[in-house]
Structures
1.
Amino acid sequence: MSNEQKNFCVDAVITWVNGNDPILNAKRAKYMHGDTTLLAKDIAGATRYVERGEIHWCVHSINKFMPWIRRIFIVTDGQDPKVNSKIPVEIVDHKIIFRDYEKYLPTFNSLSIEAMLWRIPQLSEHFIYLNDDLLICRPVTPDTFFPQHGHILCHGHIASQPWTRLLYAIKEHLGTCPVNHVRQMMLAAKFAGYKNNYIHLSHTPHPLLRSTLEHFYTTHPELLIQNIQNRFRNLDHFRTDELCYMLLLKQNKLKIRPVHPVLMRYYSKKGMINLEWTLRRVTKTGSKVCFACFYALDQVDDNIYARINQFVDDLLMEEG
């Protein structure tokens, strides 16, 4: 085994905010300056910040199904979820990753935070970024994310930029919020040198390479500033994970796999029948679902939340 292979460790990075914290809510309101347009769900709507314990599910699932993770970094703004974990956990404040860029704090923009994750001290070269509402559902190995050293496997599909722009122009005309994650993907692809295609990503864990992001952002400091200077999302922001993948695609270091077989999604507007059908995707014989996401749990009723909580408890139950 080479020294390179021996040192192939992987960290997990989770961004987390407790939107139930009155101090944080007051801080956010101060910088919104009464601008109600910022309350759109794709910008700074309350559902982006409210949490119902998902971070504990996420960390517990990493411990159970990804025990090979070296360290879990939880990136927060002066908060601590107090999670239990066998894997070492380190809380990283925004001030740490925004060192020398403190004037852009506080930020309430996840895209700005994601652009700075590579600056976490002692972060491994290979790391996996997760939102706190993601749940690992079954054992996965490092090559689920990194087929080999310096290579990434992501889940999504190649899509057309011109066609997608046309589609979203129509949606915007019909009243869709102008800030959208698909537009953020296309802008990242553009900065990576792609005019016609982009990778349409879904809500899964995103493996990343620290050196790829460090090299891009240090050689394009103006784009780093563009991605962190606004405290709330707007049309100038782009996806850092998409950027990494498009750069690696140029180097033939990226594999793309379909997302549907490995991801279970439940939307808060769906009812109990849909929930049970969705959960069976995870539990049925032969299931390949590795990741689950429960969108906007703050918007589900108590019965549905109780059922989801039971499902998660059963899934993460310690054996023996």
2.
Amino acid sequence: MAKVEKKAAKRKSESPPPKNRVASVGKAFAVLQSFSSEAFELTLSEIAATADLDRGTAFRLIQTLVELGYLQPVPQSRRFRLGIACLDLGYTVLSHGSLRPMVEPLLRGLVPDVGDAASLGILDGGDVIYLARIGAGLDRHKMDRRPGTRIPAYSAALGHVMLAHLPRDEQIARLESRPRVKLSERTLTDLDALLARLDQVKKKGHAVSDGENAYGLRTLATPIFDAQGQVIGGLSVTVDAMRLDMVAFRDQALPRLMQVTAQVQDLAIKSGLTS
């Protein structure tokens, strides 16, 4: 409830809306923005408190959003969660005006020849957001990496390869922006150790993860730069550890991954993409 009260207090401190703003639309989005990764299911009272709305207004907005598919009731409870329509909006944003459309065909060329999965990701705060993912043969690991999925950047090769090319103060800020917990016994969580790893990644030009993000998976990742030399994304290829040892995987996969990365980077620069 502390986070709910903090959100409500923040809304109350905001300046009055401009005259051209449609208040009802703002209230509807306030309802949707009540939800977060920590508060993914909320009651009517919690939504009303977070969105700074009276219960009657919150109730009517919730019912409207349920009818439109942006909220859905949680069965056998008085709670609500975000609906499929919200995901559709997110996927639309991820699919257009970004790297995704031009990268997916190239990722398909890596799977299953080079690895069992290939991905495109970007940084958002301390997280990696997947924009595209082509996979085959990793079902037993039950890894959900659909477009829009977030994972902690500190724990993944894809995160390391993008963090490595940021200024030191920004690296620290992003690493400190979320709790760092061990996802396996190999996950680095110590800040100094992570910063040292990022220095190595920048020097080598690629990142490696051997079971650090998930047991039984090995990953290579490379950065994508824009015309100004700023990192705008990353590509990765992942293999089941039972298929190849780390040395063989790196020797076989890295040249192909770097080739694809160069193609993506060229396309991104020609298209004028900067993020």
3.
Amino acid sequence: MRTERLLAAIAIPVVLVVLTVPAAHAAQPAYPERPIRLVIGSAPGSGPDIIARVMADRLWRAWGQRVVVDSRPGVAGIISADLVSRAAPDGYTWMMLTSQLLVATSVYPNLKFNLGKDFASISLIGTVPFVLVVNPQVPAKSIVELIEIAKKTPGALRYGSAGAGASEHLSGFLFTRLTGTEMLHVPYKGIAQALTDTIAREVHLTYAVLPAALPMIQAGRVRALGVTSPKRSALLPDVPSISEAVPGYEMIGWYSLVAPTGTPPGVLAKVSAEVVKAVKEPETGELLKGLGIDLVGGSRSELDSFRREQTKRISELVKASGVDLK
């Protein structure tokens, strides 16, 4: 009798445990179950748009769920960031965080979001140079010749950018500051229109992210005079770095993915792992490199560190330059 009672007492919790395990697993649905929205702060045809669509296609093939690229250009990415900061942190809204938004948040005060606190890191895709391109009718064939023309005709040259407060704008501002020249800045609502107007000679030159400008350079519709990175681009080996003529000049862009803070860590980890995998595999990696991207494929923690480093650098750069974009 004692033995039977002991076995009965042991059996009850065992049965309970077995019954509760499947229920716990059933409460955790697979991710993603529906399409994901990837918000970018740039216009269609821009560098972020091109990279976003490459990653969206790769993730759709991996998961069978669409990643819809949602372009919300304006105020150097601030509009897109404000939108995403208020989105539900459920893993179904992401944002492409780029260098231009760091520039903007270093300049514009009283924003409704905090870039450091309101966005959780997913992955750093890679870095990219900007390129200074001119209309083919502009007589300058080099950075030195461009500086000479600018000094002879102060304010006559017009340069385009993706918008006031964008990294391309700061690229131009730094150039004029370091060379002692004066040029008129013409802001656009996206780099595609700036490039179009450069071809039409509405502006004489433009600073554009390399993936957006490369097809026009290759077609001979614009002429590249220099890249903004410290080293030359492998895709434009004959185009010098601007720093070769202007010591101390440097500006790079970069592409990363973030989500609203509060997004489940497991979701962030899954997305991050797939992005890192995609960047490092031959097919997607070679496609990105063909667009001028220097691949990183950084983890969540690596992007955290990179964001802190870049925030400090950009803030100091904006402050030192005295640029006022408001």
4.
Amino acid sequence: MSLPRAEFLSASDGVKLAYYNFIHGNPSSILLFLHGGGAYSGGGYAVFASNLSNNYNTGVVLMDIRGHGNSGGERGHSPSKEQCWDDIGKMARELKSKYANILFFIGGHSSGGGMVLNYASWDTDSPADGYIFISPQLGYKSGIQKQTDREKFTKVNLPAFIINGISGGKLLGSFKAVRFNYPREVLAANPLFITSITVNMANAMTPYDPPGEFRRINRPYGLFIGKNDELFEPSKVLDYFNLSADSIKKRSVKRIIMGANHLSILLNCEKAVAEMITGLLRA
């Protein structure tokens, strides 16, 4: 399925952020959704957005992270991790101003989910009424990875991150430190995919304190993972749900999607996402 025509919003530093509107008629809720690292909104996300919009009356806006897809900025790079989070906030507030009287959610898949988790901790006054995490990449500190499969897909230059951390973020921020081993056929079918991201971009996408960030979530959320996910252990991902405050968990949802892997979950998780949103609409 192809994307709608790209529209653009200027980030706080002037970079043009591409987004794709799947909002029709009078939706009962809105979801701003981010793709994974190296990918873009055209990499399988249109079906997810279209299904939610057409079948469950949840309008979806897909956003290309800066340096990805049709968004501006150096490929795979950000001037800082905070700039990426500010981009989310800018887009979120733009949407909330247009749809002020309905529930508004921010979500992401894979590394996009990790970026949304970071954003949720950073922007405690977020306009979001809730968050959606689909197969979220929670980072090397999380313990959720299936080591063998992760190493097949990504190659990480750890010394670059160590030097960046020791320098307080002053050194190697623009160094391409994470490389994605997308199959040739995937790259041929998706020419806007990129094969590497920098330290700054990876830091924007990688939760810096996964347990603490789940404890600090101050909005209800949905946490979804495929039973057959090749990269992450489903039970370990869902364990993070238990860290959130009881008041948040009561309004949140965790679920393993049967038969789904890391990418195919985008084709069959919309019902579970819609049920979580519907639960909040009825509350």
